[in-house]
Amino acid sequence: MKSYKIRFRTLIAAASFATLFATTSCMKDLEQTPIVDVTAESVYSNFANYPNALAKLYGGFAHGGQEGGGGNPDINGIDGNFSQYTRQLFTLQVLPTDEAVIAWNDGTLQTIHKMSWDSSNEFVSAFYYRIFTEIAFCNDFLRNTTDEKLAGYNITGDNLTEARYMHAEARYLRALAYYHALDLFGNVPFPTEENMPIGSSTPPPRITRPELYKFVEAELLACSNDLKNARTAGYGRADKAAAWSLLARLYLNAGVYTGTTQYAKVIEYSNKVIQAGYGLKTKYADLFLADNDQNNPEVIFPIIFDGLKAQSYGGTTYLVHAAVGGTMKASDFGINGGWSGLRTTKAYVNLFGGANTNDLRGNFYTEKQTLEIEDLGNFSNGYPFIKFKNVTSTGAPGADVAGNFVDTDIAMFRLADIYLMYAEANLRGGGGDAGTALGYINALRSRAGANPVASINLNFILDERGRELGWEMTRRTDLIRYGKFTTASYLWPWKGGVKDGQAVEDYRNLYPIPAKDIIANSNLIQNQGY
Amino acid sequence: MLQAQTKDSIKTANIEQVVLIGYGKQKKSDLTGSISSITAKDFNGGATSPAQLIQGKAPGVSITGNSGAPGSGSSIRVRGIGTLNGSQSPLIVIDGVPQDFSGISGASDPLSLINPNDIETFDILKDASATAIYGNRASNGVILVTTKRGAAGKLKVNFSTLASVSTKMKNTPVLSADEFRAFIEANASAAYQAKLGNADTNWQDKIYQAAWGSDNNVAISGGIKGLPYRLSLGYNEQNGIVKTNSFRRTSAGLNINPKFFDNHLSVTLNNKVTFTDNQFAAGGVISDATYFDPTQPVYSGNSDYSGYYEWLLNGGLNVNANANPVSKLYSTRDVSSIWRYLGNAQIDYKVHFLPDLHVNLNVGYDYTKSNGAKTEYADFKNAFADKGRYRSYSQEKQNKLLETYLSYTKTIDIINVDLVAGYAYQNFHRFEPYAPTYNGNNVEPPKGNDYEFRNVLLSFYGRGIFTIANKYIISASVRRDGSSRFWNGSDTGNLWGTFPGVSLAWKINEESFLKGKGINTLKLRAGWGKTGNQELTNVADYPAYSSYNYGNSSAQYYLGDQWYQMYKPNIFNPNLTWETTTTKNIGLDFGFAKNRISGSIDYFQKTAEKLLVDSPIQAGDVSNHSALNLGTMDSKGIEGSLTLIPVKTENTTWELSFNATHYTSKVTNLVTGADASFNIPQGGISGGVGNTIQAHVVGYAPYSFYVFQQVYDTAGKPLDGVFVDRNGDGKINESDKYFYKSTQPDAILGFSTKFSYGNWDAGLSARAVIGNYVYNNAAANSSLQSGSTNEYLQNVYYTAVDNKFSVPRYFSDLFVENASFVRLDNVNLGYNFKDIFAPGSSLRVYGMAQNVFVITKYTGVDPEVFGNIDNGYYQMPRVYSLGLNFNF
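Predict the joint structure of the above. Result:
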């Protein structure tokens, strides 16, 4: 019937228009964007946010994630607290040496001191990924703070000057992370702000150790021009002295990294730092207490922790808690309880000539502890090493009333290290003055209440580095430089898994690239021996 | 089954069973896809959550309780696991409103907020030809839940009440006080032996209780002036077998379904409101009770730490030791309340001038608000250092649905045509304000971000079903879906997926050569289809979009002169898109002897591609893992069901039904260039930090156990730390691990029977899972060292005494135990007083027992653990109940 047909047609027409209208307006609804998290544009177009973005780059060395206590971790496959940067640096630089053993059985942790790790070791992997996420954060900041980008975001005047300093700081932090990659892994992937945008599916290219050395050197030389002058950047921020210190460290080990030594440059950059006005802190012990950010003329570049605002179960919280156990009173250390993990070996105690030394740096806890280690898993075997504490120089406990998180900062570089590098480079023919070198060593010794010496030699320097910088994450690098890390020329308890120590394979001077990354990145080649 | 009010089972045989197929219904005999339909008469009795109603009833559908805690809901798996990181749960549609996959803080399973007594039918769509019409979230199957409707006519009232007592099945087998003394004296140093106490405490007995519960429901239905309605009210109160655990649910529902304009316009309005009140037992208390030293007393005799015995060290609490479980129970008050409103309006207009055309509109609104608070008191060890803790949280979820579709049915000659075309829009929104934890130290808690998330789904769909001569049926559908989850800010290509499906059925029994030969049903079905998955668990909510996260104020950094919270660039994948699964299914339905023998058998094959996985990625990006579409997975299986009615007379009926399922899934590809050692770890265990026991790897089932092969001596005793050197390189390390068993069983069987004689009725249902393997974490955690470590004593699993392992050997395959089981789920006996009080009324009184017994070789408490890792699992209770059901 005609009228029905017309009505039918109009009905269908009306329905289709309605649907079309409804759908096109709803199509836009599919373009949902994050409600709480923000975009790059909103972060970088406002200069007030720049310190917060920069804070993540520094924070990558202190935190496991975005929340205190390891919450919202940046990487997975390992607990957010375990994967914190300095905790893993300690695990890979100190634990496989004469300086420390640990009682815990988490995963493959025992293979570190026994030097039997392989490419699936989760602690090695955790540090590897931590290094590269730090590099990625730096790359992202660098990408967003180039001169073109800053002009595009309308950053001008004083803000522009400050932004350029921040850009240099990001380069420094990236160079520091790459330095650790160079030292521990050698031949690694090479992501830069140009070749690796976030979410990229193209794997970064591979770089060999000598090439990476050149890159780190070039970056640090650029930073030593672009960063703020020494001791003017504010506590915690990188300045020229931080760049010089890392250059000195890089050049000291150049023989290991490239085959060609650079001891003269060690002297050059050590002198630059020494002339910048740093001085030794009067009391050695105060360097490792909760208020070591105050009145500290010795620290060049710290990693900052705080019991309330920078809470992490890694960092110094780990260093303090893990080293307390047995009959040690937790309240003496400003914490609520020890984790009964770390002690030291008799080889380290012997550097001081025994536990009864008057050298303040040889501070060991001996009550109900044995010097010999029969069982690595028993905390009472081996002397605990007293160094880091969560109490202030006046004896007050740290800011966290519950005694969980520690305030003490970690010095990545301090003047004592520079003195030792100068002395070593001088002995190795890098120039400088032997008398000055001896003076520096004796300054360190008299501060520590140890007897001054009349002369020094290379082996003495190695031992003095052990005494001065115990547990400060340089031991493995130093032993490798002296050819003693894997060889039989220096044996310590449980080296190689044997009670009196034995040599291990040479290839263990480098850690393996994690098996997972070898598979994920076809450009990579595994380090020899793994 | 859509029919007016439940009636006696004998009469239903004459009414053609109609099944929901999504945007329409079909007679069961005309179905072309693989669909199981379970109605109220077949439901398991005594269910406190809806999923329990159909446990063991449908082949291919596996329902496992999340825990024995009341209100904790269940996990449902249809035809095994078909995906890796995407949600593995089926899409649940309640009265036409598809549900959100995510849970609600304070309730583990959104389905558990519906009163099971209000449910009429579950229609489970299993193969792609059936689910393709729901394409975008249907890769794991679709479950259509229909609630009870009213029917015009006389007023009908139903009142039911059930009173029950729940008890625990058994304790985890750890050592008794004397056995523990002997163990410590034989293996620990003198210093640790001195820590032994003089008491004899069975800690597990101290935390469990006999729990009482009741479930009361009233339903009134009828028609007021031709307006059919059903009003239901329910109150369920259930205590948990762990002390302090309780659950209360008050629910109300009103469904009205009037018809207007001479039945041209039918309107259905469904409304359900639920209010749930939970009190949870303190977390970890079951593990604590398993491991606490049995030689210590519950109370210390002094008033420290509220009088409970705790491990001390050097004058203070030993922070590494476990807490006294009884103290932990009473130290915590963890409560939550949840309001939920689920309502929808379905309007079906039969066009006046064209009665074959129906215009349908479905508008739904689902709102949930939850509030909770956890208080931990200062005087107990649990929160002692913090001087007490308090955290209050809330969450609000909204789900809005708008669907319009046209349907057209017409019979042309011998062909019956049924066409549907439509459009659906769904908008999910979730908001949780930041909930800090306050402590008694009066230190201000850190500041953090609120959580807010919105997801929009848009779809266009169409389907045609052609029935030829009532013998040959062809069904074809296509759906195009867009999801806002894949929006990367620039191109819309990744948002859309197209999901077609086609299926055929041949009703062989309608053929002339078979007519009249006593074969009631013989139907051959075949189908093919594609479905999608866009739900990601444990991954960022906007995984394709670039964003920065503002950190918490407890993780700041000091720059120069002040503290700053950190801005972090989030990892994202701009290429992220739909995961698709292609399914092929072939099935046969049969029925003989007046359908006294009936059943079906199905064989299926699924391939999932572009699997959504939270995968490890190359180093150099802002995280070491990201959501990627990588890899493929294959599954195939066979399932069948058989129902027999051996006796059917005026007075006596006896019905038996069986179902069986067997399936195998295998990951076929993960990452290009991956070798045999590449795997994605899964399955966290307790012991050490970050240890995992399962993995996804190419060539094996997902969640395969990744363990070392234990070596035994000639007497069959395991050798401590000696494992098979599988690659023969002389070293025992990660490369010697292998993939041994997984969460995938060999077969799942279900059996139930009902017998009625006169006014008596009895029934039972049982399930068996064969080839079920569970990792016994409590046994793995036990060793000679674990009993005495960190200055306190800890109980061990009884096998530690014989094994004599020096340290815990977490990764030995010894602890992956065979947990195949047969479980008698439900036994019930009832008597029906017919025509009591008035003709047509009835009063059924019945007694019921649930979880009667389990037969298994597994040494732990319960072999049926979701995820197959037994780590302090809250066991399913044994329940005895008495109920009555009154209709008039």
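Chain B is about 5% helix and 50% strand.
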